[in-house]
Amino acid sequence: MDHQWRLTLHPQPRKVERLEGSSPLSAVFKVVFQDAESERAAFHYVSQVEGRSADNSVKSEEAESSDVGQFIRLHLERAASLAAVNANRSAHERIAASKFQDSSSLSVTPVCIALLPELHEQGYVLEWDGKGLYIGIGAAEGLHYAMITLEQLMMRQGLIWDHFHLEDEPDFPVRGVMLDIGRNKIPKMETLYELIDHLSKLKFNHLQLYIEGFAFDYTLYRELFPEATPISAAQFRELDAYAKARFIDLVPNQNCLGHMAPWLMKPELAHLAEHPGGQPTPHAFKLPPTTLNPMDDKSIELVRTMLDELLPLFSSSFANINLDEPFGLGKGQSKEEADEIGIGKLYLNYAEKVIDIVRSHGKRTLMWGDIATKHLEIIPLLPKDVTVLHWNYDSHTSFEAYSRLLAENAVPFYVCPGTSSWSSITGRTDNMLANLADAAKYGKIYGAKGYVVTDWGDTGHWQPLILSYPAYALAAGASWNADCCAEDSKGAASYVSECILKDNSGVIGELLLELGRYYHLEQSTLENMTYTSYLLHRGLSTREKLESETVFLVKLLMEIGGRGIPFQLDYHYKEMQIWLVERMTELSRVSLDVADSDVIIAELTNSLRLIKHGSGLHRYIFQIDLPDAASEIAWITKLKEDLVVIIEEFNRLWLLRNRNAGLSTSNTNLYKLQAQYEERLRELEGDL
C-alpha cells in the first residue's frame, strides 16, 4: 500500500486502501442488488430523494422497486457524462484515456449494491477493481453519502481511477450549519436552495435558520412589523421538503428569552421586558431591553403563539429554542424571584415551560449551554430529552472544559464553533481555523452527538455568504473525519475552488481564506470583530475621541460577557495598502465557471473596497500624511466619492440574493458616514 496516495475527496474518508492497478470506468452503468434487503434500502434512498411520503413509499415499494436501479444508474451516468466533458477539456486526460482503449476496457460498468447491517447507518463501503463497482451501505443514508463520494470522484478525478477499497462513516452523527437570518439579512428562496445543495454535497445533514426578529411571517404579529419581508409558512414547508430530499434535517429555530430586542421595541410588547425602560449599567446610560421577563405569564404566551405556528411546518424531530445570553436576567422585574431561588433556577423554570411547548409538538429541544455552564447547579436538573449546544467562537478559549463537564454529567451536547465572518467584512480566518479544529478535537474526545458551525449576522450582516464557504467546507471535513480533516484548510479550499465555484485558475478557495487575514495588520485587541468593521460602523471621529470611546466600549461590553482587555491598536497602514493591492491582483486572475460568477466577483470586490475604505478612514482619524487643511479636504473628498460607489454596490448586491427589508437597517451606518464626510467638508472649507 502506498501511504502517500489518497483519493481527491473532501471530506477524506476514514479508511482507503490502494489496490493494484488502475482502469477507466465506462460512462454506462448496470446496477444490480445483492438481495431483496439491499434493494429495499436503495428504494428508501430513492423515495427520499424523490420526496415521496412515508405512507406512499410503503404502498408503492413493491410496484416501483424495479425503478430503483434505473434511478441510480441515471444518477451515475449524469455524473459520468459531466466528468467526460471535463476530461475532454484536458489534453493530459485525453492522452491518459487513450491508453485504455483496448479490449480490456469495460463497455458497461457493473454496480453491485449490498446492504451491510453491521455498518453505521450513515456508513458505506466502495471498491473499484476494474471489473466492477461495489457499494456497501448501512442504510439509505449510507447510499446517499456513497453516491456523493462517487459523484465527487468523477468530478475531480475523471473516469480513470486507481483501484481502491474504501470504508467510511462520520465521527459526528449530526453535522450542520446554522445561518443567521434574524438580523437584517433574510436570503431569497433561490439563495437558500443553492445553499442546501452545497451543504448536501459536503455531507452535512442538519441546517438551522436562526430567528430572533420577524424573519418568519407570524400571522398574529404581522401588523407589528409592516416593513418586514419574512419567510412565509408555505416557503418554510418548501424548504423543509427540499432539504429532506437531500438528506438534510431543517430544524426550526426561534429565540425565546434573550435576543428579543426587535419584539420588545414594539410598544405593544415593551411591558414584557425584564427591563422595560432599558437595562441599567454602571455608566450614564442604559442598554436597550433584549430579555423577556420570565415571571410574566404573557412572556410564555408570546412564545407559545410563535412556536405553535412555526414548529408544525417542519418534519424535523428537533427544535432550537436558543435561550442564550438573557442579559440582565434576574436583575429587573424577576429580581425578587431570582434573589429567592437563584438565577440558575429562575432560568431553568422558564426553560422547562418552553420545553413543554416543544414536547407538545412531538419534538425534542436544542438549547444553548451558556447559562447552564455558568450555573452548574442546574446541569443535573436539565431534562433528559434536551440537547445542549455548547458554543464558543474564539480560538483563545477551548471547548475542552465544558465538553468534559457535559460529558461527565451525561448531558447530550453538540459542539458549535463559528465561521468568524461576522463583524469583520471578510472574516478572521486564523481564528476560525483554530476554533473549528478545537471543536472537532474535544467534541470527538468527549462524545458530542453533533457539530454545528454557526454563521452569525452581527453588526449589519455585511459579509457575503460566499465568504463562509471555506469555513463550511472545513467544518464538513472536521465533523466527518476529525483526525484527518479538522486542520485540512488546503483540502477545504481546494474543494471550494473545484466543486463549488469551479474556478479555472484554482485560486479562489485560498483567496477567500486570505481575505480573512487582514485583521493581522490591525493588531487590535477588540474582541469578536475586526477594527476595520468597528471603525466603519462607528464613523468619522478624532483620534482622541475614538480611543476614549473605545476604552469605554470595552468596559460596557464587560456587562454582557466581554473579557475587558484594554484597547490597544498597532495599525500597519502601509502594509495594509500592499495587502489590498495583492488581493485585488489575485481576484483579477479568478475565472469562475458558475452562473453567478459576475456577482461573486462583485461581492468580493466591494468587500475589498470596504476594507480599503476603513483603512482610508483610519488614515484620516490618525492624520497619517495629512499635514494641512487642503490635504484633509482632498482626502475626505476622495473618501466621500469612494463611499458612493460602495453604497451603490452594497445595495445592488444585497438585493440580488436577499430580501429587501433588512437592507435599510444594515446600510444605516454607511449613510451616516457619508453624511459625516459632508459635514466635515463644510467645516474644513468654512475654515479656509
Entry keywords:
TIM Barrel; 688 residues; 14 strands; six-stranded mixed sheet; alpha/beta; 3 domains
Structure description:
It is a single chain. The protein has 688 residues and is α/β, with parallel strands linked by helices. It has three domains: 154 residues, 2-Layer Sandwich (Chitobiase, domain 2); 331 residues, Alpha-Beta Barrel (TIM Barrel); 169 residues, no CATH class. It contains 24 helices and 14 strands. The strands form two sheets. Strands 9-8-7-14-13-12-11-10 form an eight-stranded parallel beta sheet. It has a six-stranded mixed beta sheet with strand order 1-6-4-5-3-2. Helix 7 links the parallel strand 8 and strand 9. The radius of gyration is 27 Å and the shape is globular. The chain starts with 14 loop residues before the first strand and ends with a helix. About 1% of the residues have low confidence.
Short description:
This protein is an alpha/beta fold.
Give me the secondary-structure topology.
Blueprint: E1 15-24, E2 29-33, H1 36-50, H2 54-64, H3 66-88, H4 91-98, E3 109-115, E4 124-128, E5 133-137, H5 140-157, E6 160-168, E7 174-180, H6 189-201, E8 206-210, H7 233-244, E9 249-251, H8 261-264, H9 297-310, E10 318-322, H10 335-341, H11 343-360, E11 364-368, E12 386-391, H12 400-408, E13 413-416, H13 429-445, E14 450-455, H14 469-480, H15 482-485, H16 489-500, H17 508-515, H18 531-538, H19 543-557, H20 573-589, H21 597-621, H22 629-657, H23 663-666, H24 668-687
Parallel strand pairs: 2-3, 3-5, 7-8, 7-14, 8-9, 10-11, 11-12, 12-13, 13-14
Antiparallel strand pairs: 1-6, 4-5, 4-6
Helix pairs in contact: 1-2, 1-3, 1-5, 3-5, 6-7, 9-11, 10-11, 13-14, 14-16, 16-17, 18-21, 20-21, 21-22, 22-24
